[in-house]
Amino acid sequence: MRTLQLSILAAIGSLALVSCQGPDKSYISNVADVPLKSSALPSTSWEVSPLRSNATYLMYDARTRSQRAGRVGDYYYVRWYDAEPDKPVRLVMRYTQARTGSTVLTSEYVLAAPRASKGAQTHRFVFNGSVRKRMGDVLSWRIDLYVDGELRDSRQSYLWQEPEVTGGTVVPTKLVNDVVEQTLRTVPEPEESESTSVEDENETLAAPGVESLGV
What is the pTM of this model? Predict the structure, then answer.
């Protein structure tokens, strides 16, 4: 009987050790699509308090009306588990915008190896500014997690369709700016209601950003 009890305790200990170590494969645990549709803060009522908190966070340090308008856009928070810190990682987002039609653009985040340890990671894909205003909302997306060149996991929006199905083409990250520039030539500049600052005038075209937010 005592031998059986010891065996059970050993098994429980092994399970606990495995649980503490985490899974042995990297995976995407969640993708949160958090759009910011207005530069005005929501009311203080409890029903919209989460929206107000998010808007306050995203509007931090935006002092002018133009800067606040530039923060309006689409934000995608990707939570994933890094189970293989000894291997390089690529987090790739393919997406379409209102003015890209069947053309699929690409943004990616590259994480070199080795890293300190296993653990949860969060990255943020950002689509805002005057370029996003003229290109339109993100309509569909797919996010892939590659570890050492191998696809480990993916998440996609409800409206996502593979380019092979739609007959569209996929534009790699390094060529996204060229496609955006070509598209913007057909889109008129938006009229500004107030004069822009020197800092606003120096805004340069850039592919969507992706930021590491840590654990």
Answer: 0.78
